[in-house]
Structures are given as C-alpha cells and as structure tokens.
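[Discussion] Sanity-checking designs against the backbone

I'm trying to build intuition for which residues belong where. Below is a structure token string of 174 positions. I'd appreciate it if someone posts a full sequence so I can compare it with mine line by line.
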C-alpha cells in the first residue's frame, strides 16, 4: 500500500481507538449543505462525521477489539465517532434522518458491543441517561420518603395525644 494510504488508514485507526463509540450510516442522497449541518449538530455532541473508503475502514478496524465488522462494508458508508454518550449522538442522527429523509443508521459499536439498526432504534426511543438516572433515584427515594412521612404522622399523632393528656391533667388539677 502506498504511504499516503497507509497514513490515512493509521489516522482512521487512531481515531477509532480513541473513540467511545462508532456508528456507521448510509450517506447516499445527502447533499453537501446537509452534511455541513449534520457535522455542526454532531460537533455539539463531541462527535465527528466522516466519509471514508470502505477498504480503508476495513483495514483500520482489523484487529481492533470491540470494532469487528463483517462484510457489511459494501455500500457508501460514513462513520460517526466520538467521545461521550453514543446514544445522544444516535438520537441526533435519527432526528436528522427524520427531518431530511437522508442517511440511515446501519449499525454501530457502543461500550464494546455491536448494535444493529433496530437496536439503535430502540435505544434512541429511551429517555436520556440523565433522565433514566433521575427516574432511578426517584424510585429509590420514594419508599424512604413514604416511610418518613408515615413516621412523621405517627410521631405527630403521639405529640397531639400527649398534649391532650397534658391539657386534661391541667384542667382536672384546678
């Protein structure tokens, strides 16, 4: 392989090893202005959109743990990779696809696991990670909060009974 091509493959490989996620999408039919808009949206999510030759991507991903690709690299593909939450990026891609009726999520890799387009579709319908954590915290706090309320009411009832007894003793002592 020529040195220029080897340098490109090495660059792709270094970006893949540094990435937290990789999403492959079919970019057929997307216009240059739409690519610019998509790149701006993805940059806000700390992700990048690149069109690469399939042969370069095959060579760059060969031997990398967590990025095993079979023979799916037979159509015009773009890669989206970056740091952070890959689900947020997949949601951004899905929203862009709905708005412009271009690009389609094919498959991707997240946390060392391969996800199909259908699995990504299920993941993008879920609430965000922060929302899920808030729901979990609420679910964990709810029983404790209910217990605290019940205990407070029992304690308040005891205080009212003691006050009533004290008032009765005060009235009868006169």
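Best answer:
Here's mine. Compare freely.
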């Amino acid at each position: 392989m020529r040195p220029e091509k080897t340098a490109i493959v090495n660059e792709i490989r270094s970006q893949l090893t540094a990435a937290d996620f990789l999403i492959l999408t079919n970019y057929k039919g997307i216009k240059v202005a739409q690519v610019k808009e998509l790149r701006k949206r993805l940059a806000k999510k700390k992700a990048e959109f690149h069109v690469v030759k399939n042969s370069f991507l095959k060579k760059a991903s060969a031997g990398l743990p967590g990025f095993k690709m079979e023979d799916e690299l037979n159509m015009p593909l773009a890669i989206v990779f970056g740091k952070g939450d890959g689900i947020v990026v997949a949601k951004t891609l899905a929203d862009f696809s709905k708005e412009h009726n271009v690009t389609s999520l094919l498959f991707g890799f997240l946390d060392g696991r391969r996800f199909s387009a259908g699995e990504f579709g299920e993941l993008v319908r879920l609430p965000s990670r922060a929302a899920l954590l808030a729901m979990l915290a609420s679910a964990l706090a709810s029983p404790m909060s209910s217990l605290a309320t019940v205990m407070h009411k029992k304690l308040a009832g005891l205080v009212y009974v003691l006050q009533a007894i004290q008032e009765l003793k005060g009235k009868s002592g006169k």
